[in-house]
Amino acid sequence: MTSSLFSHAPDPEPQQGTAAVADIVESCTVPRETEEAFSGFHEYLHLWWPAEFSTFGEGMHPEFEGGSLTETSLDEERALWGTVREIRPDELLTMDWFLGHSPAVPTTVELRFEPQENHTRVSVQHSGFGRLPDGLEVRDRLAGQWRNVLQRYARFMGAR
């Protein structure tokens, strides 16, 4: 036995944490009360979501159903975009967002609907990119997409 009075346990292995990748934060203002603004996003997504930011492209139909956000193709194929974690109508919608990655490693999308006189400020915060192996690349690609999605939504809701 070669124990020493001054021996100690080996240094622990470094923790494998998440890389620091900034969140995406975008917002828009729509000329609607919060109830209509929320409904326009949650109930009528299929009328304004850009086909170029979908799995199946033209003719696709995204919708919230049974606690999930799915997309259906013209051929009735389905893609799961995310699952709803928390919903407070007219105020908050938080989802696990899958990005084509395994549902075991989701990112998080949080939408907030905040009243402002006769308007509603809608903000999106997309976080959790550090958990993905290509998180910085994914974040950079999605930053412009969220901006475009909110612009399309705002036009649908009557913003100029």
From TrEMBL:
Residues of the Activator of Hsp90 ATPase homologue 1/2-like C-terminal domain: 65-132
Protein name per Swiss-Prot or TrEMBL: SRPBCC domain-containing protein
UniProt similarity note: Belongs to the AHA1 family.
Lineage: superkingdom: Bacteria
